């Protein structure tokens, strides 16, 4: 595997690969890699001639500077893990290379950014859209791989790809979990053993909500989840939402929904975590 640091270098490599007819699979990440990321790399390696992974902790998508400063970084371990699962190129640029000037771009995703992550992390999806656009221009992938853990991000990227006419397929893979049910996440590395145990309540809350889908109205399920998590003082719920899986808009009732996304965000100790599950709605006769 080759490690590339400069944008100009990855651009030349990609141009040569494209000229020789190779298909390119791309996995953008912020590093501190775990099995959720490695599943995406394996899929890209299986489905394309060449796999490129980027590791870049993108400053413009952080609405909280402490979160940016303390985001886990482990490039040496990441490099070894990527080589072991068949990645061909690791693109690990510096912030100066990706942002030679302050970015003044502004993307708007309408109602998609007015809910959940969009509402609670002002500017976040603008930063994601800026860096994903820059990376797509440099890497020119045929397929780009994302995880369902960041479900709303997948919807934003799909809208970006459609809106700007990027000629690529967005591929989404399911959330990989720890044995405890906790969704794998780079930020989990900032939690101690007790906090990791408290964090399992995000997934437990989703399972509890799933068990009530079809049996109770939306408002009653939400009340139950808020009450359930209020009994875990080490976890501060930010939102629990029942949403349409494609538009991410909250659903007022389940009668017209074949499936819904159960979405949650909460703080555990110093870390903010998100999780979601897409579940079928079995309509009662
Ligand atoms: N547990 C997981 N299962 C599947 N895909 C995942 C998982 N965690 C992250 N991904 C996906 O990997 C890609 C890179 O994500 P990122 O580098 O932000 O890692 P992360 O674990 O989501 O970190 P954090 O949530 O702490 O930022 C994204 O498309 C993300 O959805
Ligand atoms: C897509 C991404 C790499 C953009 O920085 C990031 O938001 C992530 O890791 O999910
Ligand atoms: N995985 C989403 C990136 C972020 O939390 O900023």
From TrEMBL:
Miscellaneous notes: The reaction proceeds by a bi uni uni bi ping pong mechanism.
Gene name per UniProt: panC
The name this protein goes by in its record: Pantothenate synthetase
A single GO cellular-component term on record: cytosol
Role summary: Catalyzes the condensation of pantoate with beta-alanine in an ATP-dependent reaction via a pantoyl-adenylate intermediate.
Binding positions for beta-alanine per the UniProt entry: 61
EC number(s) recorded for this UniProt protein: 6.3.2.1
A Pfam family the protein falls into: Pantoate_ligase
Nucleotide-binding among keywords: yes
